[in-house]
Give the backbone structure.
Amino acid sequence: MTNSTAPDWIAVDWGTTHLRAWAMRGPDPTAQASSDDGMARLDRAGFEPALLRLVTPWLGDAPVTAMLCGMAGSRQGWVEAPYAQVPTKPADLTPVPAPVQDPRLRVFVLPGLKQVSPPDVMRGEETQIAGFLTQNPNWDGVICLPGTHTKWAHVSAGEVVSFQTFLTGELFALLGQASVLRHSLDGDGWDDAAFAEAVGDTLTRPERLAALLFAIRASDLLQGTPAATARARLSGQLIGAELAAARPYWLGQQIAVIGNATTARPYLDALSAQGVPVSAADADTMVLSGLSHAHAELEASS
């Protein structure tokens, strides 16, 4: 039986901890599904079943192409899609076909990017960058992609020229969950003033980061600092230290921050406070734009 609601194709963003898929009509999503079947939970044989658990309701008799980005192309993924070395145009990356058992699917995986010196890699963010450049042709500057591992990418003439990754998001999670600071962060809320002050402290003197981090705990013990203030200080101190290290990227450049509202807002606030011209772009919109471009290029070459 033919499924009259079957999509033209399927867009997939496969992360370490989560899997997200969209049913697509041309460049427009018509349905979305997600699960916790990230790469870290799967062996190589588990990728196709994990995808089918999400997209089977969208499938008919005719084969449908699924275009994937992210960790499905890692060494531990569905199929290894070798990194492309910068400088390179992320919109020109060639997807790698993945082996499938179900005849209703054709699967292609986009490669990530690598930088040999200093060594660095990305998977998934290159597709967001490609989507941003598709929507903003002739844009030159620096793109910041906040997340567990925040990326700063220098873009010129449609190429990612260089990039740098910071462990800021993972450090925030580890310190908040596994260090002595966890006792001071238990609660809700946010303190904008404390965040701004903390960014300024470590942006000005990043060498004081370790001491300032412990001061969060000491302030709680001695002054009963609210958890909202402690959490904002921790975030601000880590982002301030990141901005100090990334200064060669953002100083004197136009900046675009690609992220969701939660991850992007602290970076937008921190950069704006330094007088940096910065614009925001939604991560989901950019990844769908990048996957749509890759799918259209694949169809044109078939």
In short: Residues 227-245 form the longest helix (19 residues). The chain has a mean pLDDT of 95. The chain has two domains: 1-82+93-111, 124-302.
